[in-house]
Amino acid sequence: MTKIAAEPAESRFRRLRRRLDALYNSDHPKALRFQAAMAAIDVLIIAFFILSPLIENRRTFLWLDYAAALVVGLDLLARALVAPRLSRWLRRPTVWIDLLVLLTLVAPSYFFSLGFLRVLKIWTLSHKEVLWRPVRRSRWRAYEDAARALINLVTCLFVITGFVYTAFARPGSGVEGYVDALYFTVATVTTTGFGDITLPGVAGKLTSIVTMIVGISLFVRLAQAVFRPYKVFFRCPRCALERHEPDAVHCKACGHLLAIPDDGD
Question: Quick one: 10 and 92 in the same domain?
Fold first, then answer.
């Protein structure tokens, strides 16, 4: 009796995994719509994270917080179920970030000081292929690298802003609100340095130094992505190299003969 009852349960679990795997990993129109919907939900959650310092004193804040926790938790569980190897999946940086985000959502009062790291969700969103498939099929495909670099820069701005707001915002400090923290971050990252807002103490100076170094690095990366020669995305069947010159005949890494389609194909 036990064995007979266990088999249907196991088959239901396998069917659930197959359905989730198809939704998360296939390119079927239904799956693409699901992936686009999940990306749109991620955008709404990110907007909530960015606006959190401005609405954290409202009654609806905790409801929105726990709703975001439910969505992030279910998404993580589904992705874990469809992972071919759970140990390898757990080593992905995007998974670490989502787990950290979930932790700050489930217990916001205990992990308030880490709340600014929630904005790293922008970076995990940028690693979803559903965002880049339409770009690669359009006339904007040459700007994918620039868009990725811009996303990294924006993520950095909001993470540093959140840290400055969490660590230094207090009456009389010059950083009395989220907008002040964002203003300081942008002025420091761009090395404008108006000097009307400065962070106090050794910790403030070190924060400013790190902000300037990281900001300059990301601006340089963005400039390289904008001005370097355009390369097409075409996976080499032999060595899996994905970037090639538009008129390449052979893979520059392994010499394999390529068949890169023309723009009109």
Answer: yes
If asked whether residues 213 and 258 sit together in one domain, one would say no
Domain extent, residue 26, equals 1-135
Q: Are 251 and 236 in contact (CB under 8 A)?
A: yes
Residue 21: closest CA among 95, 83, 92, 85: 83
Whether 158 and 251 share a structural domain: no
Residues 127 and 14 in one domain: yes
Number of domains in the chain: 3
Q: How far is CA 137 from CA 52, 133, 235, in A?
A: 36, 6, 15
pLDDT digits (tens, 9 = 90+) for 188-227: 888 787 777 888 888 888 988 888 888 888 888 888 777 7
In DSSP notation, 22-60 reads HHHH---HHHHHHHHHHHHHHHHHHHHHHHHHHHTTSTT
Q: Give the CATH number of the domain where residue 218 resides.
A: 1.10.287.70
Report which of residues 182 and 246 the model is more confident about: 182
d(CA 187, CA 193): 5
Q: Say if CB 191 and CB 211 are below 8 A apart.
A: no
Q: What is the pTM of this model?
A: 0.72
Nearest to residue 98, comparing CAs of 67, 76, 129? 76
> CA-CA distance, 179 to 53, in Å (whole number)?
10
